[in-house]
């Protein structure tokens, strides 16, 4: 089976009691089939840094070779529920056709190994291998995360977005396209008209969810302060375009190009609509990604995950 997407952000992983689960691969022992240079060593993919810029020194790289691979030893057997891969910026296609194997042996071609999509059904294993079949292939990974249990999905990806106004090509849907690319000129951010009063952005999740976390990525090339004072509001009402729904959290400041996580007061909040509302005059609202991690309303998190 082939890897279907090169970037999966499934940070919020919970056990049946709702506790945040650890990344099992973090700072364990990693090896790879070859070293492409004196920077891209295998351990760089389990250092806890998702930075996609290879030149910043937190990604792996093999030589161009036949069937390159990378492997992490989790030190003992775990029941693995999800694997999260961050690839290098500009090199996503290098992972086309890659396979992921989980097994109890370091020999990933043995019967214990399995190839699976993200996320996967629970599979027991100590070794997680990323294998790229073919000739003249280069394997480049910026982070590999391994989690016990099941992830809550980013339900915003299947939602419909709208906003108070739109500047040029920066439609509301750009903030739920699955990309955290924070440079506005690259075309992956939403943007309202400049100097608006009380601008807002909203995603319709299509049904009511129990929201446990919202992640917001701010613009990276300029103007990070524009988002200061924004409010995240969640509910089932469209009164005042959804901006009268209960407040989940307030955004004091997000550094340029960074992604911050917001949890609602009380741990979760139910609603179909998630708004980012920026009160005040002469305001401009730019969002490079909004992610909503949630389970269907009316179902316990333990039933969903």
Architecture overview:
There is one protein chain. The chain is built from 1 helix and 17 strands. Mean pLDDT is 84; it is low at 1-20, 109-119 and 300-305. It has one helix spanning 301-304; strands at residues 13-14, 29-32, 69-86, 99-103, 114-115, 123-131, 143-148, 150-151, 160-163, 190-191, 200-217, 231-235, 247-250, 259-262, 269-277, 286-287, 289-296. The strands form 4 sheets. Strands 9, 11, 12, 13, 14, 15 and 17 form a 7-stranded antiparallel sheet that branches. The protein is mostly beta strands and 305 residues long. The protein has 2 domains: 13-151, Sandwich (Jelly Rolls), CATH 2.60.120.260; 155-304, Sandwich (Jelly Rolls). It comes from Oreochromis aureus (Israeli tilapia). This is Fucolectin tachylectin-4 pentraxin-1 domain-containing protein. It is found in: Secreted.
The CATH class assignment of the largest domain is Mainly Beta
N/C terminus separation: 23 Å
Order of helices and strands: EEEEEEEEEEEEEEEEEH
**Number of DSSP-assigned strands:** 17
Low-confidence parts lasting 5 or more residues at pLDDT below 50? 1-20, 109-119, 300-305
| Relative strand content | 25-35%
**With helices defined by DSSP (H or I, 4 residues minimum), what is the helix count?**
1
Can you identify the CATH superfamily of the largest domain? Answer: Galactose-binding domain-like
Radius of gyration, whole Å: 20 Å
**Rough shape?**
globular
């Amino acid at each position: 089976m082939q890897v279907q997407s090169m970037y999966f952000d499934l940070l919020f992983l919970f056990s049946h009691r709702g506790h945040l689960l650890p990344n099992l691969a973090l700072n364990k022992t990693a090896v790879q089939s070859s070293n492409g240079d004196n920077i891209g060593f295998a351990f760089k993919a389990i250092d806890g840094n998702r930075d996609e810029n290879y030149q910043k020194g937190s990604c792996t790289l093999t030589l161009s070779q036949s069937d390159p691979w990378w492997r992490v030893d989790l030190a003992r057997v775990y029941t693995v529920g999800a694997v999260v891969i961050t690839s290098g910026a500009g090199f996503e296609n290098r992972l086309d056709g890659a396979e992921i194997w989980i097994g109890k042996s370091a020999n990933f071609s043995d019967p214990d190994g399995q190839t699976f999509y993200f996320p996967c059904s629970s599979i027991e294993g100590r070794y997680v291998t990323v294998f790229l079949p073919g000739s003249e292939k280069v394997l480049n990974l910026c982070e590999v995360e391994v989690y016990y249990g099941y992830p809550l999905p980013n339900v915003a990806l299947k939602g419909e977005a709208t906003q108070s106004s739109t500047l040029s090509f920066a439609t509301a849907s750009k903030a739920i396209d699955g990309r955290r690319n924070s440079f506005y000129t690259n075309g992956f951010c939403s943007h309202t008209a400049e100097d608006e009063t009380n601008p807002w952005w909203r995603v319709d999740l299509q049904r009511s969810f129990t929201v446990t976390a919202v992640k917001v990525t701010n613009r990276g090339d300029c103007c990070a302060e524009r988002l200061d004072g924004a409010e995240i509001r969640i509910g089932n009402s469209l009164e005042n375009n959804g901006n009268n729904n209960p407040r989940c959290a307030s955004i004091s400041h997000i550094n340029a190009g960074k992604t911050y996580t917001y949890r609602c007061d009380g741990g979760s909040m139910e609603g179909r609509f998630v708004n980012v509302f920026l009160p005040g005059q002469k305001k401009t609202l730019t969002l490079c990604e909004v992610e909503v991690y949630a389970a269907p309303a009316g179902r316990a998190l333990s039933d969903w995950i």
